[in-house]
Amino acid sequence: MRPLLNLLWAVLGGGIVTALEYVLAGLVLCLTIVGIPFGLQCFKLAGLALFPFGKDFDDSRPRGVTNLPLNIIWFLLAGVWICITHLTLALGLAVSIIGIPFALQHVKLAMLALMPFGVTVREVR
Q1: Would the pTM of this model clear 0.90, i.e. be above it?
Q2: Which value, to the nearest 10 degrees, does the dihedral of the CA atoms of residues 24, 4, 100, 78 take?
């Protein structure tokens, strides 16, 4: 069921578009040395945005000293706007019964987009 949902997500739920946006932003950020950590987070978000079904993120491990300032910078410059985008898409998809699973995935991506540093993406069994 997960492969079918991931395929439908990629085509109908906005998965390809959001993943390409994250990859493009990651490539632009990786052009500078200062932007490399932020670009890597964009690549992590792109992987989850392309095929979110069957994946979850785990932030239960202790966050490092460098993760907090990077999360604050990310939150202020990009996280809020990305979160608002995902929540808007989720609201639009939640209008129909068929779109509810896709809306839940956008909510999951919105939560991760707020503070991605120190979070690991893992497969759900």
Answers
A1: no
A2: -10
